[in-house]
Fold GST N-terminal domain-containing protein.
Amino acid sequence: MTGITFYDLASNRGAMSPFTWRTRLALNYKGIAYKTHWLRFPEIEPYLKSIGAVPTEKNPLTGADLYTVPVVSFDGKLVVDSEAIAEHLERAFPDGPTLFPPGTRALQKAFATFFMAQVFFPTGPVIGPGVPAIVDAESAEYVRALRRAPDGAPLDEWAPLGSEKRANAWTVAEDAWGKLAAVYCKSDGPGVWLSGTAPIYADFVVLGALIFMAKVVTQEEWKVVTSWHDGLWGRLWQAGEPYMQAD
Amino acid sequence: MTGITFYDLASNRGAMSPFTWRTRLALNYKGIAYKTHWLRFPEIEPYLKSIGAVPTEKNPLTGADLYTVPVVSFDGKLVVDSEAIAEHLERAFPDGPTLFPPGTRALQKAFATFFMAQVFFPTGPVIGPGVPAIVDAESAEYVRALRRAPDGAPLDEWAPLGSEKRANAWTVAEDAWGKLAAVYCKSDGPGVWLSGTAPIYADFVVLGALIFMAKVVTQEEWKVVTSWHDGLWGRLWQAGEPYMQAD
C-alpha cells in the first residue's frame, strides 16, 4: 500500500473527532497529501485489528485493549495515536513548517496534559451528549453503551438541552476555558497562536476540541462560546480555517 | 532605596518557600545582585503593608487581601508575585540568560498551571505537615492556624509520619510526579532541562518545589524521591545546584 492513508471517524457532519482533527490539521498545515479512510464507531476496532494496528492503550478500568483513531498508514507502516503521529510527521517531513519548534516539545506535552485535564474534561458534560445526534443509528447506540459519566449516568442524562444541569455545566466549561484564555494571553507577538506568529501542535490540540465542540453543541451555544474571553476562540477558529479542509 | 531587595520567607533551614525559590533561582541564574530581607510567617502581611506592597491576590474563600512573598524592590519600585517578578526581570535585564525563550511564554504559563494542579497540589499531604518543624514556635502556630485540608483537617493530621495515610499520600505523590516525568522525557537534546540545554523559568518552578520538599520531608523520604523515575529529580537538582546559593 503506497501513499498516506488517514483513518478517521465518520459522522453526519464530516470529520468531528477532537483527536483525529489534531492529525488532520497537522497534515494540512505541513502540506502533506493523504487520502482519508472513514470508519464508523463500531467499525474502528475490527477494522484496525484486521490491518494489524496495535491498540492505542488499555482501558484503565477493565485492562482491555483499546483501538482508536487517528491511525495513519505511511506506505503501509502504521502509526497509532495523535501524539505519535505528530512526532512521526516531524521526523518524516522535516522540510515543511514545524509542529514542535526547538525547545517546545516537553512544554507542549505539559500543555496537552493541562488542556485535557483542566479544559477539555470539564467541558465533557456539554459536548459528550451531542455525539449520538451526528452519527448513524448503530454508531449512536455504540456510543451510548460506551460513554458513562463517572457516576454511571447515561449520556442522555448528563446535561439535557434546556436543563439547569446544562446551564451549570456551561458555567463550569466557561471557567475551564478561562484557564486556557489566561495561557493564550501570554502569547508572544501580535498573532493569536500560542507560540507567536505560526501555529504549533498545541494549537491544533485546542482547535481539534473547538471543531468537535462546534459540531456537537447547538448553534446558539456555539455562538456564545465564540464570544467568551473577548472572542478569543472565534479568532483562533478563523486563524485555523486554512488548515481545516477535509477530503 | 537603591539596589535590589528580595523579600523572602525565613526558616530554620534557610530559604524554603517553593514560590520565593522561583525568584531566587531566576535572580541567581541571570546573575543579578540582590540583598535578602528575611521575614517570618507572621511578619509578612504587616511588613509588606508597611512598605506599601499591594496584595498578591484575594483569599478565594473569604475575599480578604492576601500578602505573600516573593516581593522584590527594584530601587524602591515593588514587584509582587513570582510570575510578575520573572517577567519584570526579563524586561529589566534583557542581556542575561533568558527565562522565557521566544515562543515559550504562553507554554510556560500552561506548564505552571499543569504543575500546580496536577503535580504540586497532589503532593500537599506529604509536604504541608513538615513546615511547622522548620520554623520558630510563633510561625509554627501561625501556619497551623492557616493551613487546613479541604476537609478541614488540621495540618498535623494530614499524613503523620509512619501512618498508612502517609504511605498512601506518597503513592499519590509519586504518581503525580510521574506525570511530570512524562513531560521531562520529551525534552529536546541531551540535558535534563525542559527546553534543552539551558534552564527556563518552568524548570525553576519545579526546582522550587523540589527544594521545598527536600526541607520538609524526612531524609529517608527525600532519598526515595530522588530515586523516582530513574533518578530524574536527583539529576534535575544537581543541574540546578549552581543557582541555589542564598545570601
Observations:
- Residues 105-127 of chain A form the longest helix (23 residues).
- The mean pLDDT of chain A is 95.
